[in-house]
Predict the structure of NOTUM carboxylesterase.
Amino acid sequence: SYYLKESKGSRRWLLFLEGGWYCFNRENCDTRYDTMRRLMSSREWPATRVGTGILSSQPEENPHWWNANMVFIPYCSSDVWSGASSKSEKNEYAFMGALIIQEVIKELVGKGLSTAKVLLLAGSSAGGTGVLLNVDRVAEQLEEMGYQGIQVRGLADSGWFLDNKQYRRTDCIDTITCAPTEAIRRGIRYWNGIVPERCKLQFKEGEEWNCFFGYKIYPTLRCPVFVVQWLFDEAQLTVDNVHLTGQPVQEGQWLYIQNLGRELRNTLKDVTASFAPACLSHEIITRNHWTDIQVKGTSLPRALHCWDRSLHESNKNGKAPLKGCPIHLIDSCPWPHCNPSCPTIRDQFTGQEMNVIQFLMHMGFDVQKMAQQQGLEPSKLLGMLSSDN
């Protein structure tokens, strides 16, 4: 099932894969079915949906894509868009994420996709990982159907996870506490998950789970992909067992969080097109404030527009990157929300907005110590933070 907003004059198509975690065994899939039915079944889906962020048809909210044909594919497969197994005696549930995408493509060809110039496969969270797993397959499918002229690209938002060591190791009991590698290991078997052939060949049999991690699959991809990733992703921190609620953060946690930002930044250094703000958040491209976030003075819609242009230009003559139109944007400041354009932070208990200083104090941020590390007077550091410089 999918939602479609046609834009008759346009030859650009944007297909969006919804996110929403996953489940990887009978128990947690049963729980998911009881508590989050819309992520397991289409039964209660609304007849229409309103597109926001990059799916909005308002030019103010969506400066460069508002006029495209928009397709929203809801996430009911719970398998990070990788599954290819139907319901069986052994398995109560069907996991058909990879097949859903193929079927939607097949059907859209008859609705105008056949004359498309550009198809952008986008997704957030599990949908962002789904983009990395499916973008090449979509390109191959269209080629096999005889549509070689369609340029297929990917936009992966908040789906670039690290298989790092958890802050506190926990047993793999449920979706939230299970370390990502272990969850995916179990999931692939349970969903009969498929990963792209080129990535699979890099790893031993049984090690296909590696392909769910952006920095490992990215070098094997043929299609151009733009990666959008918060340096301090809330979902990553959750699976790493760093819980930022109520109690101030201990020093160990604070160092862990900063290190996570560094590790993530490292994995993005060879990614041609990327946008990575130093914020604590999760998902961005379908939020209506997505135009406000900037890295080094460039907004995300602008960076995507520059990427579009660079792909268009390079098709012509492989010129140097466009002046004043950057596509590799990664914050270099070292802690969460050191970028003044980050989304507002709310206290998870009271729902109240916090400014950067309140937030950093809440995080157990030691102003004296940090000022010393940066070689600044404490008052100067506080001034910089509060003036959002």
